[in-house]
């Protein structure tokens, strides 16, 4: 009995020692003693059957509402014992086994433990991962390796509410250790790992650390970049860094702008220090970043000053490449730097299938594209509709994969789109057929890639273009039947009839809703019913009628066809039936021909002047200028 007491005391001492070293499950340093003690302990407690080395495989689920094959249950029971449980390994998935499973799940941070272990599931992965540590007896010190992991990639998210594949968690844990953490690299994304992720994010300046690392995300980019930097600290550079060479080459398009922008050619392919918010901001480095941002559509003066406009451009670029947090800081060899320095051509056009010229619009963005039922939170969620929504949201750099199944990630992506692009204050995570979210998804999707080239050519921000589209056509310039949206203006028809040599007053009786001398919104029917008004007007005078309606994405009046670049109104109308480049071309032609671009260039924008020139002197009645400004402010946060 004295021997038994000594065994128990020794076992407790070893447990305490391991707990001090932050890993009560890792018996790798004491495996021989631990196996003996475990066997002795079971004998002392009544001769329970012990299987020290279980097969790390189960064929079916074990636990509450599980299949509970005897051999599978034994494997799980033994693994639970390896994690501190005291179960009899008898193959009976009774209350004690289920209770042990729930206790283990609770340790992993599971909010609602279900008491079941599924093959290849989350609980199984952690059971076997930590259990496998017993085969590693290479060290007698806590496992906080300083070695570089064999892989610098993760397949899925790690941390709070993450996928937490064991191998991915191990990679993140090792990288966190490279940054000063003291984690055991065991693949367990428990509280200590989440806490370490949050601490690392806080160091990066993240306002609200979420404790999660996403593949190619902001946190991941900094984790890997810093780790590489640490491994290279012992090696002294043998060559001087490239110098910055500048050649002034102002383009004709920007020569009349109120703010000078440089088309400087930069040969440097790296930066020495960080650039942007709270960065090192060496002048030469800042110039390199400013020029690269300009190559991606910004309109910065390349002056080496990392001021508010440069930081804003960095944040906008980080938004476009899909980072969840926009730090406004670029570090050497970081994820943002890699994307920025990828190509001097607009990299976004590689990711987005939209019209920038004569290329065809993809089927999912066609003017007749539609969903038959609602998709998302509390939606009907027909598989074909869900798949179509996935395809469209992917074009906005939202991290989704094509699928016909509704997931939490899809609903989150819908809510983000509603908040950022639709301007919803309370996103509901659902897309309804022909609803505002659906129309915005299609409308912006058709032109989103093209606006970068157009905006750069005319020296304005893409957010200006999207603001005009949002206010003029509600985000989509086409009806569900594929025809362009129109709004027929009876007071313009009055004027155009006069120009055609006809007396509008004499024609007014019986046509009061399409012929009147002063503007009023009382006669608007909106949607498809506007075509009924147009048809009545065409019977009186077709050309005058076409000139009296506004058309498409940007609701350009037919009588402005020449400004939009068309010799006659009929060719203009024909072009407005096609989405994409024709819509953008018409808008920019109108803005340029009417000298309106000057109002939206540079930091200070005159929205009232733009509104008056675009919509006439009565713009204030509908708060047109205020709507434009608010839409611009929303889009400028997510786009360059």
Automatic annotation (TrEMBL):
Domain annotation Peptidoglycan binding-like: ranges: 71-120, 167-216, 284-326
The organism's taxonomic lineage, starting at the top: Bacteria, Pseudomonadati, Bacteroidota, Saprospiria, Saprospirales
Naturally occurring in which organism (per UniProt): Aureispira anguillae
Protein name: N-acetylmuramidase domain-containing protein
Coiled coil segments of this chain: none
InterPro entries xrefs: Muramidase, Peptidoglycan-bd-like, PGBD-like_sf, PGBDSf
Pfam families, A to Z: Muramidase, PG_binding_1
Bias (Low complexity) ranges: 130-151, 244-269
Annotated Basic and acidic residues bias: 230-243
Segments for region (Disordered): 45-64, 109-165, 227-282
N-acetylmuramidase domain span: 461-635
Gene3D superfamilies attached to this UniProt entry: PGBD-like superfamily/PGBD
